[in-house]
Amino acid sequence: MADKIYDVAIIGSGAAGGTLSAHLARLGADVVVLEGGPKVDTRTAFNTHGMPYQFANRSIPTMKPGVEGFDGERSRGLGGKTQLWNAVAWRMSPRDFKGRDHDGAGENWPIDYAEMAPWYTKIEREVGVCGQRDGLEDLPDGEFLPPVPMKCSDEIIARGAAKLGVKIIPVRKATRSIPAPRTEWTPGRPACHFCGNCMAGCDVVAKYNSYDVHMVPALKTGKLTLLPDSVVYEIPISDANRVTGVRYLNRKTKAQGEVKARAVVVAAACAQSASLLLMSKSSRYPDGLANSSGHVGKDFIPHFTGGVQIFLKDLIGKPAVNDEGYLDHAYIPSFMHNRKRNYARSFGVQFNYQNRRAVGWARSLPGFGRDFKQNVKDRYPAFVVMSPYGEMIPNADSYVDLDWDKKDAYGLPLTRRRVVWKENDKALFQDMTKWVVDIAKAAGAEILSVAENPATNHELGGCRAGNDKRTSVVDRNLRSHDVPNLYVVDGSVFPSASEKNPTHTIMALAARLADHLGGIAKRGELG
């Protein structure tokens, strides 16, 4: 392997790396994927059906599979975050791609919705996204499997929202609502059987993960090599200003290794992608690889969320049912773009995606002994978490950088995140929280708690895509402005975030990049 030169080396195996690698291999490119974590057997690794009393101290590892490796930012596992995501899959809208044109804030994408639409469709057909066509301007329809039915609690909230003129729709997820037959490039997959917490993994692969659905079938091409347990720490560059491959550490032994390639794609997930570029210093790029603009790590725009915990009075005291499966079945899409408001952008609301095996809210209830236990039992079927997601506007005070004084288990500098909320973010947070409380009250809810400050989620930005190389890191084809054979594809390239979960867009970008890179490879122009 030391002498082999691959066409493309991809760092990361999640939504971006998994999609990209499979598409490239099918196009005939010789591809290697380096993943910091181990190989994951989805059939045995997860605790989907476990109950609290089956775990030490009744502590359920809800966000990790039962294997080593998912224990740090640089060490996850084949499939990356798609092994543990909630699978929510929205298309961004035309307005999302050109937000600055609409409200004068943030940044436009260098591409538009019309260009992305075919790639959204391609991904939906490959991975299976359930939902319904709702005809909403700010949430474009796609190619959907049948939607899953709403829960009783969803219907109660929907009636309350309707009183305020707010619509609730079935959620759209990359989860099979009907079985999928085996094809040349996709495995046979069963329909979801609603067994538990999607963010604890899916042991039957009804929920999409990039390893089982994209990479495993692509292995039959003979063009895809997977290197798990490979923690990449540097992307070396030649005197001719070309990246030559990647250098990595073995996760278990810490032994050094190197892979050579004609092109390198960074798909390590937002903050980690930015930090890898910052670590890859050289005399040509003393501030980090591909960082002549100084924007690597800058323009950090994670989603911000709030949290409103409620009890639906109509369900207090009703018999408990097992309705955790699949988590959230419904969604409140953006409805603020055409309303008068004192801020730019909008928000959407996810709700009913709490893990019912975790009842930390019980600690806040009054009572003791038998009365306390009855109070918890009465409210258990009525508990709902409502979480609005808002779009952050880029600002110079929010960024990702490295802490060279603090090292991780591999001796590499820790990644730091700095987030400063500006006036637009604060105004949006206050308004989206008020709307959620009003909807909950209209649904006859008893309010348990309301978050006072925003929290981050869905990390985005740090390697912004743009046409101006002075203010962005990669171009419209996700190629570095500085280095001709270096690419980045993951949430870090987002110039603006929208309020929507980003993974579907990341996968569509990866499919688009594969088509672009595949053409270059066929012409012999890589490297």
Question: Which short descriptors sum up this protein?
Answer:
alpha+beta, eight-stranded antiparallel beta sheet, 17 strands, FAD/NAD(P)-binding domain, globular, 11 helices, 527 residues, seven-stranded mixed beta sheet
Structure description:
With 527 residues, the protein is an alpha+beta fold. It has a single domain (5-522), classed as 3-Layer(bba) Sandwich (FAD/NAD(P)-binding domain), CATH 3.50.50.60. The chain has 11 helices and 17 strands. Strands 3, 8, 9, 10, 11, 12, 15 and 16 form an 8-stranded antiparallel β-sheet that branches. Strands 1, 2, 4, 5, 6, 7 and 17 form a 7-stranded mixed β-sheet that branches. A two-stranded antiparallel sheet has the order 13-14. Helix 1 packs parallel to helix 11 (503-522) and helix 5 crosses helix 11 (503-522). The chain is globular and about 70 Å long.
